[in-house]
Design a protein that fits this description.
This protein is of the alpha/beta class and 168 residues long. The protein is 45% helix and 14% strand. It has a 5-stranded parallel sheet with strand order 3-2-1-4-5, sandwiched between helices. β4 (86-89), α4 and β5 form a beta-alpha-beta unit. α1 (15-26) runs parallel beside α2 (42-51), α3 runs parallel beside α4 (104-132) and α4 packs parallel to α5 (153-164). The longest helix is centred in the C-terminal third of the chain and has 29 residues, at 104-132. The chain is globular, with a radius of gyration of 16 Å.
Length: 168
Amino acid sequence: MPTERVALITGSSSGFGLLTTVTLARRGWRVLATMRDLGRREKLEAAAQAAGVLDRIEFLALDVTNAEQIAALAASIAVRPAPLDAIVNNAGFAMAGFTEDVSDAELRRQFDVNFFGAAAVTRAFLPQFRRQGTGHIVLVSSISGRMGCPGVGSYAAAKFALEGWPRR
């Protein structure tokens, strides 16, 4: 009998993260559904319950901008008996605002979550994938990472960075 596949998904409390979590669980995966605030898990729990897959999902706190939390999670997952098969770097948000209206702090926050967060999570789990000899990494981007639009330049810039980041 094949072993159960395990995926870690960032930003699972809503949107594509929620949909990906439920879809993978329906397909037989064990899903480590991470989110910054576990208090926001109700929507995912309801969707998983409705799909009959709540027992295939483990809810874990993870702020992709917190290096210590990322390292601790990677260490705890590395000692589990089942290998981690995939990471879906989905955590992110879109900030609207024209260039002159976006503060440096807002721009940094956009990059910290949408680009640096995905990079940090990826780098934290690469040693485990190398030890295992296998593992898949998915970086969730956007058409905005290829073609920016007025009013969402900060979001587009962070997604452009994700698109251009070397994956090997």
